[in-house]
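Tutorial handout. Part one gives the primary structure; part two gives the three-dimensional structure as tokens.
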Amino acid sequence: MIKKDLRELQRERQQRGEEFQDEVRRSWAKVSNCWRMRIRDGGGGTRPADEIVLLADVNILAEHKRTEADRFELAYLRPDQFKGLLLFDRCLERNYGLVFVSFQNEAEGRDEAYAFRLARALQFMQEKKRQYVTLDELKRATLPCAPLARITADITYDLKGLVECCKSL
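Part two.
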């Protein structure tokens, strides 16, 4: 009985995450001069991130996460994702290893999304001596981040602002 409940919860979490990925993917279609490719799992759970996005001025390796909690924890990233985002970020000056996180909690009426650079988030967390960043810290931009404005008509996000502020992340 307990295993069934845990499997059901895991399936629900996975479904919410996939919905967020789809919303972001549809959003990139509205950004001009954008090429993106979904990264398939290499088998055995090895995949550096969800997708790579090439733009005129920046390249983004993106990992998408959706949570009902009011904080993003490093534990949400698998070791291969963590390593892939950091290595990509260090490779070229125009590369950004970004985490897109959606804080969605229907019971609390919350649906907010942000993008932040993992390398910068790690520095921030080390200074705080912890392994998470709170929604409130993202709202206040204590950690440099880009709020992702939702376009409700087609359930997408306005990513044009992210492209413009990427270098400040």
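Part three, for discussion. The mean pLDDT is 88. The helical segments are 2-28, 79-91, 118-128, 135-139, 160-165.
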